[in-house]
Amino acid sequence: MFGLYITHPQVKIDAAVPVPKWGLSDVGAARARLAADNPWASQLRRIVSSDETKAIETAAILAAPSGVSVEIVEDMHENDRSATGFLPPSEFEKAADWFFANPQQSFNGWERAIDAQRRIVSNVERILATHDSSLPIAFVGHGGVGTLLKCHLEGRPIGRDRDQPGGGGNLYCFRLADRRLSCDWTPIEDWQGWI
């Protein structure tokens, strides 16, 4: 059966609010509701979310059709960027480029990409080790660590060229039996489900 990694869609950006506490914007919530209307959402039997507000909100919307509860896993959070705090979008994009290009180094105190990758991979593998592989599961979180997980699943080096398109609200699908990708980043509202 299938597993999904789903990134939260658009958020309310507020420099006065810590980034992990940002919630979905109206656009982001609408996109999550569109995704929840697709048949694949009602097939989900387990939904695991990072503890970031935007991820929890996305997971809750996607859980409604199947009625499953959302499991929160604190260690599935985005790479720790608290050392720099909020960065304006243009500065953030430059920092993210550097983060992916230099995975063994820290960008001005950020968690290193290799450490964030190790953390997300170990959490996903720990959860899947006891999960019934006949049941569809979704992991909901942030695009950065989602990309690091994707690089691992593909057996490829960390690189931003494997990152999701801008705006968030994308997913990729992988087979639970062998952890191989069956689809690349796709907008959540456009994915047609497991084939």
Q: What are the main properties of this structure?
A:
about 200 residues; alpha/beta; 6-stranded mixed beta sheet; 6 strands
Protein architecture, described:
By secondary structure, the chain is of the alpha/beta class. Helix content is 35%, strand content 16%. The chain has 6 helices and 6 strands. Helix 3 links the parallel strand 2 and strand 3. The longest helix is centred in the middle third of the chain and has 17 residues. The N and C termini lie close together (10 Å). The model has no long low-confidence stretch (mean pLDDT 95).
Report the β-strand fraction as a percent range.
15-25%
Count of alpha and pi helical runs: 6
**What is the subunit arrangement here?**
single chain
Give a count of the beta strands, DSSP E runs of length 2 or more.
Answer: 6
Q: Radius of gyration over alpha carbons?
A: 16 Å
**Largest beta-sheet details:** 6 strands, mixed
Please estimate the helix content.
Answer: 25-40%
Give the overall form.
Answer: globular
Low-confidence stretches: none
Mean pLDDT: 95
* Global structural class: alpha/beta
Order of adjacent strands in the largest pleated sheet: 3-2-4-1-5-6
Order of helices and strands: EHHEHEHHEHEE
Distance between the termini: 10 Å
Topology:
Elements (H helix, E strand, L loop, with lengths): L1 E6 L18 H11 L2 H5 L2 E4 L3 H11 L6 E3 L16 H13 L11 H17 L7 E5 L1 H12 L15 E6 L5 E7 L8
